[in-house]
Amino acid sequence: MAVVAGWLLLVQGLPDVDVLWTAHTLTRGPELLGRATVAVLVAVGLGLVIGGALAARRFRDDAVSRRPSVEPVAA
To answer: What's the domain range around 45?
Structure first.
């Protein structure tokens, strides 16, 4: 779920990254607010995508280590 939310935030924020360094923003309101909004969208999106990927990897590794080992039965 975190990866999906992060991806959606990235998709929404990445097209507006140019607002971070351009002098003329297309946002209504203060320029600083537009830049801060884009920075927050991109940062939260990246954080959720990276955190979700790391969490999925961690839980997958835990599930693999919990599997019982299969040993041959001596006859």
So the answer is: 2-61
